[in-house]
TrEMBL record:
The UniProt record lists the keyword DNA-binding: no
Domain called Cytochrome c: residue spans: 77-186, 243-383
Ranges annotated as spanning the membrane: none
Cross-referenced InterPro entries: Cyt_c-like_dom (IPR009056), Cyt_c-like_dom_sf (IPR036909), Cytochrome_c_Peroxidase/MauG (IPR051395), Di-haem_cyt_c_peroxidsae (IPR004852)
Subcellular localization(s) per the UniProt record: Cell envelope
Identification of the protein by name: Cytochrome-c peroxidase
Species: Flavobacterium difficile
Length: 398
């Protein structure tokens, strides 16, 4: 990790430890007599600082054990500020783009266009869904893991010339100009005082707040969660699943067996080798999945080794939450499974995950139609409903 990123992470930890609420304080609303005229004027009832939404103490199933929030524990105050920052177009140079432009609540905080629109063009990769980012072992961010953690990631799009335009390069304003801009906004004076006991705005405070809000976005109300809650482990049959859904779960969890040429002879699909139940987060040791194209169509990109959780990959009814993969080249679950069914090792791909090239050959899963349909049925059980409509994750400017 570069020294600058290490120092930035240290600053986040020190500021959080000195400014953040205690766990008890995080759940205690302020007295109803507190007044925040600028916040009330801008947001009305959608942001009520005297009656905070619950970000800090949400129910987490007992079988969920991964949690990467230890250095930045969620508080209701700071996550509330993070929500406003996430949706505020003032964070872009021309006031037209916010974080939510590329990460839309209605599509599981992803995007339903291949390349998301920025202030000076479009993104180089498809925008990743932001579901259950807290519940993952992988702490690095972006498809190519270029951000050491979520905190650092949150301001990188703001400082990108194409995305939000405060790069300080190519004639852009600098991030310091953004801080000056936000410091003049009355509702931010109240919100930063409320969250950090100081009106002063810094990049580290913005990172802490945005990361807390993003980590608060969780989805555990799926059919899978109902079944897992009463099952002794992931491999046991779920009583609320159909036979097809249980078959798909077994295929997802069970590793395949291959012959010398990389052709499956027995076992399942082994999806869980990289997408690990019950969080369905990506294994941090994963390499790329064989899709090495670019949105622009120029050259190859073998550095994409991260992926979002498979939760809410689609909606309960099977409707997709936008395109899949860093290029957006996959648009259906059938196509996604089909990709892994036949892995072709493209020239120049020196970073293909070894689990996809048994014996040095691209895997051939020899999938049947029944197996494909079963895995699709199972993947649909990973989708909930609350995350799409819950007001605490919605746009407060509406």
């Amino acid at each position: 990790m570069k020294l600058s990123k290490i120092l930035q992470l240290c600053a986040i930890v020190l500021l959080f430890s000195s400014c953040n609420d205690t766990e008890e304080d995080a759940y205690t609303p302020l007295p109803s007599t507190a007044s925040y005229p600028a916040v009330e004027a801008e947001f009305g009832n959608s942001v009520d600082l005297n009656n905070l939404a619950n970000y800090a103490n949400q129910t987490i199933p007992s079988y969920i054990t991964k949690d990467n929030s230890a250095l930045n524990l969620i508080s209701n105050k700071i996550a509330t500020l993070g929500r406003v920052l996430f949706y505020d177009k003032k964070l872009s140079a021309n006031n037209t783009v916010s974080c939510s432009t590329c990460h839309k609540q209605e599509v599981a905080f992803g995007d339903n266009t291949v390349a998301s629109s920025g202030v000076n063009g479009t993104t180089g990769r498809h925008s990743m869904r932001l579901i259950n980012t807290r519940f993952a072992s992988e702490s690095k961010f972006f498809w190519d893991e270029r951000a050491a953690n979520l905190e650092i990631q949150t301001t990188m799009p703001i400082k990108d010339h194409g995305e939000m335009g405060f790069s300080g390069l190519n004639g852009d304003l600098s991030f310091n100009d953004l801080i000056v801009k936000l410091s003049a906004v009355d509702y931010y004076k109240e919100l930063f005082q409320f969250a950090f006991d100081s009106e002063e705005i810094t990049e580290t405070k913005i990172q802490i707040a945005l990361a807390q809000f993003i980590r608060s976005i969780q989805s555990f109300d799926s059919k899978y969660d109902v079944g897992r809650a009463s099952a002794p482990n992931d491999g046991a049959p779920f009583s609320n699943f159909t036979a097809q859904e249980n078959q798909g779960k077994n295929l997802f969890l069970t590793p395949p067996q291959f012959n010398a040429t990389g052709s499956r002879t027995a076992g399942g699909l082994g999806c869980a080798g990289c997408h690990r139940a019950p969080e369905f987060d990506i294994d941090p040791n994963s390499r790329n999945n064989g899709i090495i194209g670019t949105i622009s169509g120029n050259g190859i990109d073998i550095t994409n080794t991260r992926a979002p959780s498979l939760r809410d990959l689609v909606r309960v009814d099977g409707t997709t939450n936008g395109q899949m993969m860093h290029t957006g080249v996959i648009t259906t679950l059938q196509a996604a499974i089909g990709h892994y069914g036949t892995i072709n090792i493209a020239p120049g791909n020196t970073n293909l995950d070894p689990r996809l090239r048994p014996g040095g050959n691209g895997q051939q899963l020899n999938l049947t139609a029944a197996e494909v349909n079963a895995v699709i049925a199972f993947l649909r059980t990973l989708s909930g409903t609350d995350v799409y409509t819950n007001a605490k994750w919605s746009n407060p400017f509406n």
